What does this fold into?
Amino acid sequence: MSAYYCIPCARAMGHLSGLQTSSLLGSTYQHDKFAKHTAPSTCYQVASVFRDPSTAAYSAYFVSASTSGTLEIDDIGRKNLIVFAGKTVGARYDVGQFVLDQQSVKIVNYSDQQRIHAFSVSSSGAGSQVCARCGMPTPI
It folds into this structure.
């Protein structure tokens, strides 16, 4: 089961010290993920697609997540950031159809500068988890 931390606690615990947002499209892997999540394609059976496909919007999600998001540490120790946007940022694209609006952004592989990337996800809304360190509600 994943553990969730508010940004102040994640910083205090040293979990966000390696986060870099300067090169979000620096690798082929990152470029491929950006393309996957900004334009619907028949290459993928299921994918989330951002409403705004610009690199400026994509970069802004990283800044928002690192300052006001939630840190998720999953069952196998991967660290992801989630930010609740409070508005539709994308949709799930499933076998040729948009099936679900998504209000959050998930940034995965954030400690790996060659694999860090983002995609939109559905959200349960603000305060749906609590910080495992301080107990405050965390928005995801």
In short: The first helix runs from residue 7 to 12.
